[in-house]
Each structure stands twice: as C-alpha cells, then as structure tokens.
Design a protein that fits this description.
By secondary structure, the chain is an alpha/beta fold. The chain has a 5-stranded parallel β-sheet. It has a single domain, classed as Rossmann fold (3-Layer(aba) Sandwich), CATH 3.40.50.1110. The longest helix is centred in the first third of the chain and has 18 residues. About 45% of the residues lie in helices and about 10% in strands.
C-alpha cells in the first residue's frame, strides 16, 4: 500500500510539472500557425538559457534556426514534449541546453545524464540520423553549491555522446572564464543565474562551428 501511494505521488508531481508547460506548447503551436517555421530547421530547445537567447536568429544569420526553449524545464520535460518541440519540425539538427534545473532540483549527475540519454534515444528512434548536439551545462554564480554535480554531469554526458554517431558535446565553459580561469560574473544578469547579452556573445563563436 505504501508503495502504491508513493507511486501515485510521483505520478501526480510529474503530471503537475508537465502541465505547467502546456501554455508554452500552445504558444509554439499558435506561432507556427501565424508564421510557419522554416523547413527542416535547426531546433534549439531546452531551458531558460535557450528561451532568453533573443538574438539567436541574428547570431546565426543564414542558418534556419528555430527557438523552442521553455523556461524552467528539465531534461525530462524536454523528453516529455519532444514530439511538440523537436520531432514535429523534422529538424536537420537538434541543439539542446538543459540539465541545470534538474541538478538544482536535487537530481544527481547520474540521473541528469540518464535523462539526456532518454531524450537522445527517443529522438533517434524517430530520426535515426539527425545530428544531436548538447551545450554543456553552465556554471551559474547563484548555484555555486551545485558546481561539483554540474561538472560531473557534464563529463558523463560528454563521454556518452562521444560514443554516439553524429552527436557532439559543445563545451561553452572555457569561453565563460577570464584569463585566470575564473567564471566571469559580468556575463550574468543581476540574478546571477541567467545570462546577459555579453554571456550569449561568448557562446556564439563556440556554437557556430557546430551548426550544419
């Protein structure tokens, strides 16, 4: 009986977590009706670091990029909504940034990596050859206590993707450090979590060579 109630609680929490993104998905669908997305786009999806990348199309001018990030999402949410934010577009490439919220919500490095594996596996089941790239989980000043877990998760994900065909780990961490190897706080907004335009400017030359 105790197991039943624990299972019910888990399902209820998962449902609530996923329902909170219904408005995001509806907004994407409405946007697609109003302005059809490019054919076979490069889909960028994941959490708020993707959502707030307002200059994405300008940064990668000439590339058919499509921003389908939804703030607060974890890797499990991206997997849950993969049909709506990735596969519906039959993308030529998938670029994911997520995992930071998973860790902040006390999921281990191993759990975070497994969630990435679940997403990758699902996408490849439907599009076996689509290029799949993962932007490394950044270190945020406001989440310093999670840095060891972030670093471990990045290594696990990097090692996993290195064994997969047409999959790459895009490491943006070095670009966010100063000459002494320390994270530059000037790349972040006042919340010390989300990046400002200077932060994204550091990402662009790192990500650009990976785009098809």
């Amino acid at each position: 009986m105790r197991f039943f109630f624990l299972a019910l609680l888990f399902v209820s929490r998962l449902t609530l977590a996923q329902n909170k993104f219904d408005s995001n998905i509806a907004a994407f669908e409405a946007a697609d009706r109003q302005t059809p997305p490019p054919s076979r786009p490069i889909v960028f999806t994941g959490s708020s670091s993707i959502v707030k990348w307002g200059s994405l199309a300008q940064d990668f001018a000439g590339k058919p990029v499509l921003n389908r990030g939804f703030g607060g999402s974890e890797l499990s949410d991206v997997r849950h909504f993969a049909d709506q934010v990735i596969l519906v577009y039959k993308p030529k490439q998938v670029v994911v940034y997520a995992g930071e919220n998973d860790i902040a919500n006390d999921h281990s490095a191993q759990e975070t990596c497994q969630r990435l594996v679940d997403l990758f596996t699902y996408v490849r089941q439907h599009q076996p050859n689509v290029p799949f790239d993962f932007i490394s989980i950044k270190l945020s000043p406001s989440r310093r206590k999670y840095w060891p877990v972030v670093q471990e998760a990045n290594e696990l994900i990097k090692n996993y993707l290195a064994k997969q065909k047409n999959a790459r780990f895009i490491d943006i961490r070095p670009a966010m450090n100063d000459a002494s190897g320390h994270l530059m706080g000037s790349l972040f907004l006042a919340d010390s979590l989300h990046m400002n335009p200077s932060g994204y400017a550091k990402w662009v030359p790192v990500v650009k060579p990976y785009l098809r």
